[in-house]
Amino acid sequence: MRSVGVLVVVCLLLAVFGPMVAPHDPTAINIPNRLRSPGGAWLLGTDALGRDILSRLLHGARWSLGLAFVVSLLGLIIGTVIGLIAAQGGRLADWIAMRTTDTFLAFPELIAAVVIAGVLGAGTETLIFALTVTGWMRYARVARGIGLSVSSRGYVVQARLAGLSPLAIARWHYLPSLLPSLTVVWTGMLARAILGISTLGFLGFGVQPPMPEWGTMLLDARIHMRSTPLQMIWPGLAVVLSVLAINLAGDALRDALAEQDAKE
Amino acid sequence: MIRIFAGLLARAVVVLTGTALATFALLWHAPGDPALSIAQARYGTVVSKEVLDFIRAEAGFDDGFWTAFWAWLAPLIQGDFGQSSVNGRDVWPDLLTAMSYTFPLALVSLGLGLAVSVPLALIATRRPGSWMDRSAVALASVGVAIPAFWLGQLLILLFAVQLGWLPAMGAERTAHSILPAMTLGFGLAASLTRILRSGILEARGQSFLPAFHRRGVAQRNIARDHVAPHAAVPVVTVLGLELAFLLEGLVVVEVIFARPGLGSFLVNAIFARDFPKVQAMVILAAVIFVVVNLLIDLIYRILDPRMDGRDA
Fold this sequence. Notes:
The complex is a heterodimer. By secondary structure, chain A is an all-alpha fold. Chain A has ten helices and no strands. Helices cover about 75% and strands about 0% of the residues of chain A. Chain B is built from twelve helices and no strands. Chain B has helices spanning about 1-30, 35-45, 50-60, 65-75, 90-125, 130-145, 150-160, 180-205, 210-215, 220-255, 260-270, 275-305. The interface of A and B includes residues 102 and 218 of A.
């Protein structure tokens, strides 16, 4: 548990402060220095355009982790709103909301994201749009399930009879019950978003060069696999470690919540 | 049973219609003039305005979204996937060829995933908390965090570039399928191990099992008749989710290993802005996904008769 915490904190620190400690400009092209082996002033070597790989990795954290954070948070907000509308809004609203959720869930999310990002034209905005549109459904399911069980409880019925507005009920009565489960879903979706962003970047539909996103870096490194194989190791390792840290944190959180539930 | 089946079928139709509508709406709002790309594919780079008007009228682009949508959907329902906007050829035969590369790879990868994960989960759960169990869990946790596009590259680096044992690019011989199948199989094995393990542990924890044991039923019979069916329910559910993982992985793996399957078909069609091909591929993926999930829903209800016809 403690080691998981350390790993997560390290990831967060890297995303926030990484760019500040980067030794070089991540986009500065320096052709005479291209494809250097690790060592000297370039700790992890340089890429095909002579850019410092360590600096690109550190700046890349902001793209790969930062965008994943944005995407998963947008999904959380949209999904929760749709789930609560389904739970509170009567039978027709419930039917429409849930059939929409089914339809979006009925298609492999990453393929949908590839199609959306590819068709609308690669770029950061379309990337965020594509991954958000395909990433809100799990939140909606969970929010609806908990919302339905909460709405039949006495204090919610009384609040409704007392004339409290739906928004106030959502804020004071639904949110506290929703938060623990939604946080667990959120950690899973955050990990998926990191994988999604780097996969789209790798396929050429994500963050565009020269920005140093980890998947895009792997795409560059691929061409020079024979001469500088180590270039392919670093960005992949960064993706695996951050996804692993977030998944482990999610597991720990879920276990802690289950224990708390068992005690009550 | 028939009523349940009809319900599931109705849901599948709603989902497929929704997917078709969403896809068409997306392409309708895509940047660029679709008529221009069709015209350029047919007649070269310089296109007169009359030709563009003709193509727009032919494809129903002038009559608004719903007319154009219906002009695409009506033939589709009869199995006509239309023609490529780049080379004018029928999409369906190309799609069939791509499938002939993708399906064998998908099946072999799935088999590989099961062949690794089932024994691993059984060994791990023999003594929960033992070092065997902990290392299986650790392996699976790392495994699900490794993106397919990276693992595939690492395998190419090791087996094709450094050792020179296996071919990396193409799909002519069986040897070409080994690295792609390993890439996909590894990811599947990792996530299946996690789910199987918790499924078996949960099934073992059922309160009626000690009663059988005290009555003198042999341990192996308990495992076969009572633990296995319980553990099978989450596995069947998860196979549906794994199918999504498999389809997503196939896209990446086929691009990395330059296999002419459905994944490459889709990515190439997007890059070429060949929208009829993109539409065909999306609809095909949706049909596969919906049909497999329909079957899984049915198997689910056979395994666990308590499920009523409502929510899965």
